[in-house]
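Reviewers of the previous submission asked for a worked example of the structure-prediction workflow described in the proposal, so we include one complete record here. The input consisted solely of the amino acid sequence. No template or homolog information was supplied to the procedure at any stage.
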Amino acid sequence: FLVMSSPSLFISWVGLELNTLAFLPILLSKKNKLTSESSIKYFLTQTLASVIVIVGGLILLVLQTELSMTVVLFGLAIKLGAAPFHSWLVTVAESLAWAPLFVLLTVQKLNPLFMIWSFSQINSNFFHLIVFSSLVVGSLMGLAQTSTRALITFSSISHVGWFLTGMAFSLETGLLYFLIYSVVLLAPVLLLENTNMSHINQLPLIPVKLQNQCILFFSLLSLGGLPPFLGFLPKWVI
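From that input alone, the workflow returned the following structure tokens.
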């Protein structure tokens, strides 16, 4: 809410920091020792991105040039996990439980998206580079993955390209895409958590309920954006 309602880059930055600090305890889990490592990676990456955003804001105060907006966009792209600044997201995602991973891939992207729309150049060459590289890297790198978490994460990186494309048209289009993506992502995440499936080759080992397999199959098709499923609707709108 602080980021959404703020007219100032500095207050929005404070909102980003509060969000990072509030999310860190969710990352930590007593059951999995790897989460402490992933939370430190997350913290360091977010801190670096925040410093870059603030530097962009300071350049804006002094010079008022296009460079400052590009620096702000650079910092926000790291926070968003957009390609080519996505490698931290994949390593953090691999060691998370499904619920924190869902939050990381949905709610945590809202603040940077609002800030990109408000404080950076949406039609600059750098913006277009981020959009195209997210679409290409998310789609092609996903082909080489066997881990379900990595697959969902690369899918999310590809969808970030679509979020940003929507934002370039209007805030409403970007948010519509984001909301439908969140709903569509929830079904496969809940199923994968329920069946405790962390690798693709475990698919034949899912308890043979035709209902489960059909829901997983259709929800993944929807996540891929195929008609006539819900995931196709926002792509059609854009």
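The mean pLDDT is 91. We consider this example representative of the routine output the project will generate in years two and three.
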